[in-house]
């Protein structure tokens, strides 16, 4: 027998896009259900993405400061051999935060009156969703359910893009999921892809003592970073011990017992080389995920990259079905997914809702952090916009000096005529927090002078942001 239920809105996927949308919808008065086949709520981000990776990044940095000689430069004497890594506990700390946060989402569902179904959601019709039990998922629905609903929000997210010809076993050849749960620190970790995920995980294991080699097809790292920031980032990561092989094509990789053999080719010279690693991380990107959704049954359009096609108000061809997050256009980022979730629900409810795609920050949580928002120099040149640059190095910032953490700079790009801020690019300590100020400035159309005339607390790293703005339209004081 199939049970049935009725809702105003059914959200498929409980990742950052889906769970945030479901809570907002319930707050706006919709009888809301959210479906996820993973079990624990929170999607990729909370389970196998942003959250576990940031736990490993934070704790590996602490460890590295102790054993890498940094503590000693601060007058903190660490006796050789006294600091040890308990890798089991290190991983357990990560699992704890994942559990707390995914559990927290389920509590928020309860608090807001969202019905959470653990199961696979698929379309029967634009107004009917089937929920199927999923084997091995704790708390999953025991029998199939049919949900009648007025509205549907698809937020099924993304999955790891496979590398043609390379088989992921999540032991020796791993994806971003496997690398978050290794059993031991590999002696040699090789990474295919110098994007954010590859470089973050490379940073983690480099700090824990692995020999890390990053292979990248492009001649530069960091995907959409500003060119100057990307080359500085590479220089600093190299100084930390990460090896880079850029403009390098991976031809094949296969496991042979406990090692992985990798064949690469230099894209310029065509010279081939054989490499060996104990663990190979394949981090060449993510792709939209629609498996099991039965989207074809209601005729939803998918583009050549596998993304569900929508208009600028998240609409599909069915006026009651919208799509948000990684499964559709735009950068695959948790905060972008959340903004879309809220906007889509508001559009359902009131006809008004908006995401400013010119103001979505990106952060790489390496050390130092790299963060940017708005236009890069390259984009401004392409768009034919004349601009001015203001830069301020952290070595001239008093707080960074106190913290003995002075690598990097703030770079502000402003319109040459109006002096309005067009982009901010930061490499340095706490860049990921500092970029929020740039976002606020951008959103309110601030000029560099507007920011410069805001009183910033002393001594703080954010004074570097203020001074970079001063440098953009006039001159900085401390450099
Ligand atoms: P997802 O989080 O992928 O959630 C989709 C959910 O839908 C999944 O739980 C899935 O089980 C469920 N689902 C799919 N199909 C069905 C179905 N038919 N029925 C039921 N359920 C279904 N982003 C950042 O902004 N900052 C970071 O620091 C960051 N770090 C990352 C680190 C790693 C290692 C990875 C892999 C990603 C990281 N990301 C980061 C990206 C971020 O995780 C994604 O952008 C974000 O999770 C997208 O949210 P979403 O809700 O669209 O999709």
Automatic annotation (TrEMBL):
<dbReference type="InterPro" id="IPR050151">
    <property type="entry name" value="Class-I_Pyr_Nuc-Dis_Oxidored"/>
</dbReference>
<feature type="domain" description="Pyridine nucleotide-disulphide oxidoreductase dimerisation">
    <location>
        <begin position="360"/>
        <end position="468"/>
    </location>
</feature>
<dbReference type="GO" id="GO:0045254">
    <property type="term" value="C:pyruvate dehydrogenase complex"/>
</dbReference>
<feature type="binding site">
    <location>
        <position position="54"/>
    </location>
    <ligand>
        <name>FAD</name>
    </ligand>
</feature>
<keyword id="KW-0676">Redox-active center</keyword>
<keyword id="KW-0560">Oxidoreductase</keyword>
<dbReference type="GO" id="GO:0004375">
    <property type="term" value="F:glycine dehydrogenase (decarboxylating) activity"/>
</dbReference>
<dbReference type="GO" id="GO:0005960">
    <property type="term" value="C:glycine cleavage complex"/>
</dbReference>
<feature type="binding site">
    <location>
        <position position="285"/>
    </location>
    <ligand>
        <name>NAD(+)</name>
    </ligand>
</feature>
<feature type="active site" description="Proton acceptor">
    <location>
        <position position="458"/>
    </location>
</feature>
<keyword id="KW-0274">FAD</keyword>
<dbReference type="GO" id="GO:0045333">
    <property type="term" value="P:cellular respiration"/>
</dbReference>
<dbReference type="InterPro" id="IPR016156">
    <property type="entry name" value="FAD/NAD-linked_Rdtase_dimer_sf"/>
</dbReference>
<dbReference type="Pfam" id="PF07992">
    <property type="entry name" value="Pyr_redox_2"/>
</dbReference>
<dbReference type="Pfam" id="PF02852">
    <property type="entry name" value="Pyr_redox_dim"/>
</dbReference>
<dbReference type="InterPro" id="IPR006258">
    <property type="entry name" value="Lipoamide_DH"/>
</dbReference>
<dbReference type="InterPro" id="IPR001100">
    <property type="entry name" value="Pyr_nuc-diS_OxRdtase"/>
</dbReference>
<keyword id="KW-0285">Flavoprotein</keyword>
<comment type="similarity">
    <text>Belongs to the class-I pyridine nucleotide-disulfide oxidoreductase family.</text>
</comment>
<dbReference type="GO" id="GO:0006550">
    <property type="term" value="P:L-isoleucine catabolic process"/>
</dbReference>
<dbReference type="InterPro" id="IPR023753">
    <property type="entry name" value="FAD/NAD-binding_dom"/>
</dbReference>
<feature type="binding site">
    <location>
        <position position="121"/>
    </location>
    <ligand>
        <name>FAD</name>
    </ligand>
</feature>
<dbReference type="InterPro" id="IPR036188">
    <property type="entry name" value="FAD/NAD-bd_sf"/>
</dbReference>
<dbReference type="GO" id="GO:0042743">
    <property type="term" value="P:hydrogen peroxide metabolic process"/>
</dbReference>
<dbReference type="InterPro" id="IPR012999">
    <property type="entry name" value="Pyr_OxRdtase_I_AS"/>
</dbReference>
<dbReference type="GO" id="GO:0006103">
    <property type="term" value="P:2-oxoglutarate metabolic process"/>
</dbReference>
<dbReference type="GO" id="GO:0006546">
    <property type="term" value="P:glycine catabolic process"/>
</dbReference>
<dbReference type="GO" id="GO:0006564">
    <property type="term" value="P:L-serine biosynthetic process"/>
</dbReference>
<dbReference type="InterPro" id="IPR004099">
    <property type="entry name" value="Pyr_nucl-diS_OxRdtase_dimer"/>
</dbReference>
<feature type="domain" description="FAD/NAD(P)-binding">
    <location>
        <begin position="8"/>
        <end position="341"/>
    </location>
</feature>
<dbReference type="GO" id="GO:0006552">
    <property type="term" value="P:L-leucine catabolic process"/>
</dbReference>
<dbReference type="GO" id="GO:0050660">
    <property type="term" value="F:flavin adenine dinucleotide binding"/>
</dbReference>
<keyword id="KW-0520">NAD</keyword>
<dbReference type="GO" id="GO:0042645">
    <property type="term" value="C:mitochondrial nucleoid"/>
</dbReference>
<feature type="disulfide bond" description="Redox-active">
    <location>
        <begin position="45"/>
        <end position="50"/>
    </location>
</feature>
<feature type="binding site">
    <location>
        <begin position="193"/>
        <end position="200"/>
    </location>
    <ligand>
        <name>NAD(+)</name>
    </ligand>
</feature>
<dbReference type="GO" id="GO:0045252">
    <property type="term" value="C:oxoglutarate dehydrogenase complex"/>
</dbReference>
<dbReference type="GO" id="GO:0004148">
    <property type="term" value="F:dihydrolipoyl dehydrogenase (NADH) activity"/>
</dbReference>
<dbReference type="GO" id="GO:0004591">
    <property type="term" value="F:oxoglutarate dehydrogenase (succinyl-transferring) activity"/>
</dbReference>
<feature type="binding site">
    <location>
        <begin position="156"/>
        <end position="158"/>
    </location>
    <ligand>
        <name>FAD</name>
    </ligand>
</feature>
<dbReference type="GO" id="GO:0006574">
    <property type="term" value="P:L-valine catabolic process"/>
</dbReference>
<feature type="binding site">
    <location>
        <position position="216"/>
    </location>
    <ligand>
        <name>NAD(+)</name>
    </ligand>
</feature>
